[in-house]
């Protein structure tokens, strides 16, 4: 397995290099399934204002091989309006094909694969527990980078040690964090051999119960940045209607809730994570509570939402709901809407609450903002677009728009290889060394 990884590194060493620059990040996750009910292919994202597009999600197999979750959406569906036709020449189609086209038009935007997520984290613990699994995971990820034209790998394991989705239960063990660090270090070693700037990131929890075992110093030390999922701090599982992404803790909270964006960020920093590597997660959706009298009130399970099967979750672009009034609590840095007639309370991010978080990012020297998920934002360039708001606040010249890589000569797809220039070693004329007479001690 190690021999295979070494061989793969030798082949990808033909990629062309792109030099990185610093700056704030404006990261946006693209959810693969948005192409269906939402009719939002990857080309509908605002690529001009995004530094990193994270494709959600890649699926790890039991042996560690990383693959695609929905091949039709990822590499098969065609878009004739862009000259993407259903041919037999072996070209890369789907969202990945479009992403490679867009990378060439937006050279400052990086594109990568996020692996795992809430429903696909069930293999991580077992894979990372063995050397063979770890090696396979890294080598197959590098192969995907080469084939699919990726700039980075992002891992979304929910969650090491604690588990996550309990239907069925996600396998987890006490050694998960140690094994996680080992995998990240393997990636870092592999990336160091590439002639272009490949990035490594992870999505991480904002709830203390889920990060209490994390070795922040070791994990952040192996990463380019860490995307803290600073949302879902409340929902239909909560005791009361509540804020899902409050910046600060409410000392008068009736249930004594201690979760807050500030609390999570400060725990990461105290644990040894460099502030500039921390990227603040921003939700582009709201969580609703029905039959409620308002904040911290009782409620019933939600019955409506923007998505089929997604009751209780509303796209930000649909908020505030008709008949609702939008509120902002400056003390907590939290926004919500309430419809007194329908008794619907919705917690979400608004331009005012985001403004407080952007100030917070600068105040603490954080790395930028991350959004879940891009198709849920208001129209790009408008006053309600949160992705646009981050871009305008940071300013293009202060953002991480370092050049992406478009040189993948070893991709299995002809249209990804197209235009690539293999790096040919400079010939060296051999010389005969001058004999040196040995000396007698």
Automatic annotation (TrEMBL):
| GH18 domain residues | 24-397
Regions crossing the membrane = none
Task: Locate the compositionally biased regions of type Pro residues.
Answer: 424-441
Name the InterPro entries for this protein. Answer: Chitinase_II/V-like_cat (IPR011583), Chitinase_insertion_sf (IPR029070), GH (IPR017853), Glyco_hydro18_cat (IPR001223), Glycosyl_Hydrlase_18 (IPR050314)
Keywords linked to the UniProt accession: Signal
Which cellular component appears as one GO term in the record? Answer: extracellular region
Q: Quote the Pfam families the UniProt record gives.
A: Glyco_hydro_18
Return one Gene Ontology term, BP aspect.
carbohydrate metabolic process
For the keyword Signal, the answer is yes
In residue numbers, the region (Disordered) covers 417-441
Q: Which GO terms describe its molecular function?
A: chitin binding; chitinase activity
List the signal peptide residues. Answer: 1-18
Superkingdom of origin: Eukaryota
Q: What is this protein called?
A: GH18 domain-containing protein
Record organism = Aphanomyces stellatus
The root-end lineage is: Eukaryota, Sar, Stramenopiles, Oomycota, Saprolegniomycetes
């Amino acid at each position: 397995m190690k021999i295979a990884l070494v061989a793969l590194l030798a082949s990808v060493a033909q990629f062309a290099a792109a030099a990185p620059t610093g700056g704030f990040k404006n990261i946006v996750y693209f959810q693969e399934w948005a192409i269906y009910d939402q009719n939002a292919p990857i080309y509908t994202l605002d690529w001009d204002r995004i530094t990193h597009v994270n494709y959600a999600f890649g699926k790890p197999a039991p042996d560690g091989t990383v693959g695609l979750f929905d091949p039709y959406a990822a590499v098969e569906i065609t878009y004739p309006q862009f000259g993407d036709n259903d041919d037999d020449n072996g070209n890369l189609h789907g969202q990945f094909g479009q992403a490679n086209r867009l990378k060439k038009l937006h050279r400052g935007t990086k594109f990568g694969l996020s692996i795992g997520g809430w429903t696909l984290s069930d293999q991580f613990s077992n894979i990372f527990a063995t050397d063979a699994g770890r090696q396979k995971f890294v080598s197959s990820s590098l192969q995907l980078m080469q084939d699919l034209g990726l700039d980075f790998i992002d891992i979304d394991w929910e969650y090491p040690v604690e588990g996550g989705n309990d239907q069925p239960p996600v396998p987890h063990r006490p050694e998960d964090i140690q094994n996680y660090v080992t995998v990240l270090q393997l990636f870092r070693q592999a990336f160091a051999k590439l002639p272009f700037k490949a990035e490594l990131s992870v999505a991480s929890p904002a709830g203390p119960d889920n990060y209490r075992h994390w070795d922040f110093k070791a994990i952040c030390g192996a990463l380019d940045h860490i995307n803290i999922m600073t949302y879902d701090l409340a929902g239909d599982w909560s005791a009361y209607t509540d804020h899902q992404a409050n910046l600060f803790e409410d000392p008068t909270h009736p249930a004594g809730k201690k979760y807050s964006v500030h609390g999570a960020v400060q725990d990461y920093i105290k644990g040894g994570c460099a502030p500039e590597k921390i990227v603040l997660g921003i939700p582009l959706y709201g969580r609703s509570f029905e039959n409620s009298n308002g904040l911290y009130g009782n409620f019933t399970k939600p019955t409506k939402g923007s998505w089929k099967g997604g009751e209780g979750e509303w796209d930000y672009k649909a908020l505030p709901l008709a008949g609702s009034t939008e509120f902002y609590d400056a003390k907590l840095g939290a926004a919500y809407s309430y419809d007194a007639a329908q008794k619907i309370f919705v917690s979400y991010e608004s331009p005012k609450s985001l403004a407080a978080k952007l100030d917070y990012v600068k105040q603490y020297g954080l790395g930028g903002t991350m959004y879940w998920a891009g198709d849920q934002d208001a129209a790009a360039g408008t006053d309600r677009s949160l992705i646009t708001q981050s871009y305008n606040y940071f300013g293009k010249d202060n953002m991480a728009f370092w050049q992406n890589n478009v040189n993948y000569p070893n991709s299995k797809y002809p249209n990804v290889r197209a235009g690539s220039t293999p790096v040919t070693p400079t010939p060296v004329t051999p010389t005969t060394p001058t004999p040196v007479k040995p000396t007698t001690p």
